[in-house]
Amino acid sequence: MSDRKRSTALALASALAAGSAVLLAAPAAHADVVDVAYDCKTPIGDKSAVSPIDIKAVKEGDGYKLTMSFQKGVSSSPVELGKGAMSPSAVILVDGAEKASVPVSGPPNPEAVPANTPIKITDLSGTYTPKKTGKATFTAGVLTIKALGTTTTCTPGNSPKPSLELDVTAAGGSGAQSGGGTGEDTLPQTGPTDSALALGTLGGTVLLSGAAGVLWLTRRGQRARS
Question: Which of 26, 103, 139, 188 is 20 to 30 A from residue 17's alpha carbon, by CA?
Answer without folding.
Answer: 188
